[in-house]
DNA sequence: TGACGATCTTAACTTGGGTTAAGAATATAG
DNA sequence: CTATATTCTTAACCCAAGTTAAGATCGTCA
């Protein structure tokens, strides 16, 4: 499959974008490769693009003023959308950094073109709504992980639900995502060997 | 001001709903009072109504299978929307309970009527989008509170940003919302006296 | 393959929340 | 205005995560 076909297929799966609707969007998608550590969007920048990950893993992280260290907020991997959602929909500066953690390839579309598509087709309107719901679910899941689960439970769920991320990301980044320090994650892993 | 005028004003503030658009919706709004402890929506029920709180405080909470105790997820108070958002937009059973914590008064609208309004007016379409954004912000803020702040910081921010809630809710419910036990909140409060 | 840098684990100690149960303070109703 | 229920605080003990620094392991590239 060509990259365009992959995108077509994925958009159809995600939001029922049909061949005609995809045709409308075809001229707008651009391709970009990211080096490891390259930013998708930076702190204080307005996010103008919505990206579809063909390959690679991205993370968005927060830099704490006091503690000065990075806290991972979201991971995004292959066949997922990468976007600084709030910044993108409100076109306001972002509070986070979003960077590529590996060599990555992305197809992306500009917000103006997306807005244009919203007006042209119900399929794309539905896509917009589903991206909104996805963003909400992402945020809500994150809140629930912290409100209802222990670090150990969060760790197990990550391995279960996102082995692709677990297998491609250093443990100290996993720890940060789980809301704990690297030594704590080591202890959790050690404790679990007995089970 | 009559209750309808209050609603009209609030909808205009929130989403720029103009007089004509409000007129369209007027026949659909219903009024209901809730006794303390009465449910707005229950676990496993599909949330069919979006409510506007004229007076009172609501909470949504989660019941943990293991620990068996309630965990407060959101508070909603006067002049805010109360709705089990995910259940409402997807019309699927809710994972939470949402109940009134005080005597409350609500104006509510059925999802079918709201969908009807979306088709009839751009003002109402915008309203729908803004409710979606509000829900996202609520969830994202909650995630951020847990990812980036200590329990003490969360406590201070709650007092700062939501004194109305702080003043109308027992401390053990605040503790649950902050993700800690009541004795821990007492310790935090004691620690803070010195500052 | 050998050396360097990156990553992961471990140890020792500190800190803060969890748990349980008792008691103090506050509200509420009779 | 007392009795009762509700809410809040305190105490004592436990346990998990934070912190810091050292050492082990792993990868990579010259």
Automatic annotation (TrEMBL), chains A, B:
This is cAMP-binding domain of CRP or a regulatory subunit of cAMP-dependent protein kinases. The keyword Kinase applies. GO terms for molecular function: kinase activity. Keywords: Kinase, Transferase. CDD domains: CAP_ED.
